[in-house]
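W.,

You were right to be curious about this one. When I first looked at the sequence I had no strong expectations either way, so I just let the prediction run and decided to look at it fresh. Below is the sequence, 337 residues in total, followed by the output.
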Amino acid sequence: MKKRLSPEVKEKLLEALKTGVEKGYSYYMIWKILRKNGVEISKSTVEHYYYKNFPEKLKKRGPYLPRELRIKLYDEVKKLRGEGLGYRKIKKKIEELYNISLSLSTISRWCRNTRSPYNGRRIPSIEFLEPSPELAYVIGVVAGDGWAFKKRNGRHIVGARVKDEDFIEEFSRCLGKVLNRDPPKPRQEKDGRLVVSAESKTLYEILQKPIDIDKITSFVEHCKECMRGFLRGFFDSEGCVRKDGSIYCFNADIQLLQYVKRILGLLGIRTTGPKIYTKKETLLFNERMGKTYLRKKDVYRIYIRMRDLLKFHQLVGFTIQRKQKRLEEYLRKRGLL
């Protein structure tokens, strides 16, 4: 059986509700104010009287404004607050500028940093991604042997699993820079490989496989440094260097390899291929796993022309030192370094 409110508490509650609703407060905010003023009352009781006395508050909330627009409004609210404007003046100014009415409670939460449209997404949308060599490197790595997938719980993850510490450190650094956060810490798996991953729906949207070339073009081809970053990430991930100095890379996505070849060409680095390397339904033995498996797709390969190995070294190179060292040893033997 519910405990009845005393006349004094009920009077204070109704007065607080009337004042709070006029100011645009939610029942939760009114409950907090009552508790702060020494009125012992449950949150559910305040909620009950809130909707009982103001049933219009029960009407179904309309759809959210697009995140990009909410972020513009948020930034504008924070700017106006920084200029010393009160909540009501901010509300009026937003209506004048955007013809959108924000509730006083929303403005209050934004100004007090208890809510933000940035929450849950460090990069709100693809439109907010800024081209950079670090982003291009992340694109190259994930386009190669990395991953971008959506979990059952709705989280979007991008990451990579490698065996070279210098490689994973660079990938972690670039991922942290892109997401404006500390570099995610690598973790080591039982087989000794290192894994780095981070949550980002925006990166997932441009890096889910098969890679949509149109989505990455503006970030990769933004400038020469971005093209170099993309290629270095891709060759760190998928590239191999033989003892004879030859450089090649594999991938099952022939369109992606054709795009890699085009970017190499823009830097003046000539290639051969893509040519088929392994046909689908071929049986392959994985020495590390000790298992035989059936290739599900055709795998293609491109080569860097031997005459352009020095140019590749100068313009792209490898983050992975064992690959870089092997390339440099070959170039020294040829008297090119």
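Here's what jumped out at me. The domain at 126-333 is CATH 3.10.28.10 (Endonuclease I-creI). And, maybe more interesting for your project: Residues 7-22 form the longest helix (16 residues).

Coffee later to discuss?

I.
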